């Protein structure tokens, strides 16, 4: 069997025998224990054990079977793959509204998916706002002017010491200045709020925060019909991706000053 065929066989066996890997990930077990935990069919377990031993996924140093390093990694990648597919399925209507290639599985895996309820369209932002309220620093893309959201940022910055950076597209900035001139003047004049304008399109509404609650990031997706939904993730990988994405656009943005 060549290397390509071996890889295919490993994928096939892990997909079919993942139950054995998952039960052995908890602790080493004897064959009767595996049978009890997985399947009443001993011949099925015998075949599964042979398959996994042949592929170096499990071993039996004494009387108990246990995962090898190969088995641990194979199981972890199998679980990550299935978790990602589940998140893609749950958030597909949100993802379809994003520019192609603008988000990766690094952010999607492990995320909380909040779909918008048409009867209460802003309710899906409540979790995002609660994280911001308990943070000391906020960096955000603002793609749609929502007065209650911006008013809340001003209040938290003024009263709670929140340090904020905001990036807007030129079109969003122009709409802000035209329709909410007093709010624009207030937010630009607020100490500890830095605003930037970008001569390009922002792919989505992005925010990430840090504070006593730790680091958390979120993506808000808007369409012409309003807010479609929100993805929130507090994993290190997701927050790093959000930070890198924000920094990429921040480097190209110009500061907004009162004027």
From TrEMBL:
Listed Pfam families: FilR1_middle, HVO_A0261_N
Residues of the HVO-A0261-like N-terminal domain: 14-89
Annotated ranges, domain Methanogenesis regulatory protein FilR1 middle: 121-252
Domain of life: Archaea
Name this polypeptide is given: Uncharacterized protein
Organism: Halovivax ruber (strain DSM 18193 / JCM 13892 / XH-70)
């Amino acid at each position: 069997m060549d290397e390509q065929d071996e890889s295919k066989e490993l994928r096939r066996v892990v997909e079919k025998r993942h139950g054995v890997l998952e039960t052995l990930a908890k602790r080493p077990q004897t064959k009767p224990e595996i049978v009890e935990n997985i399947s009443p069919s001993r011949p099925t377990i015998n075949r599964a054990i042979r398959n996994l031993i042949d592929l170096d996924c499990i071993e039996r140093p004494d009387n108990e079977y246990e995962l090898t390093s190969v088995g641990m990694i194979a199981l972890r990648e199998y679980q990550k793959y299935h978790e990602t597919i589940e998140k893609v399925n749950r958030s597909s209507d949100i993802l379809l509204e994003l520019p192609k290639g603008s988000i990766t599985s690094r952010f999607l895996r492990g995320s909380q998916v909040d779909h918008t309820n048409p009867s209460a369209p802003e309710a899906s932002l409540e979790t995002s706002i609660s994280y911001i309220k308990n943070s000391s620093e906020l960096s955000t893309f603002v793609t749609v002017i929502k007065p209650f959201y911006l008013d809340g940022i001003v209040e938290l910055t003024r009263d709670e010491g929140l340090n904020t950076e905001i990036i807007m597209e030129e079109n969003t900035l122009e709409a802000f200045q035209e329709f909410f001139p007093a709010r624009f003047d207030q937010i630009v004049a607020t100490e500890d709020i830095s605003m930037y304008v970008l001569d390009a399109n922002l792919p989505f509404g992005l925010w990430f925060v840090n504070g006593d609650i730790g680091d958390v990031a979120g993506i808000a997706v808007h369409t012409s019909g309003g807010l479609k939904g929100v993805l929130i993730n507090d994993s290190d990988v997701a927050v790093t991706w959000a930070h890198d994405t924000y920094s990429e656009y921040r480097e190209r943005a110009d500061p907004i000053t009162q004027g």
